[in-house]
Amino acid sequence: MFACMLCVMSPPIGALAAQVEGLMSIIRFGEAGSQGLISGADVTTTLVDTPPVDWEGKGLRVHFESAQWPELTIGINERVSDWSSMQELIIPLTNLSRNAVNLVIRIDSIGSGSAPGSRSGITRLQPQEEVALVLPLQDELSVSMGMRQGPPPNPPLLGRPVRVIGGAKGEINLRNITTVHFSLPFLGSDNTLIFGEPATIPGVGPGRNSYVHIADRFGQYTRASWPEGRIPPRTRNRRGTA
Question: What's this model's pTM, rounded to 2 decimal places?
Answer without folding.
Answer: 0.74
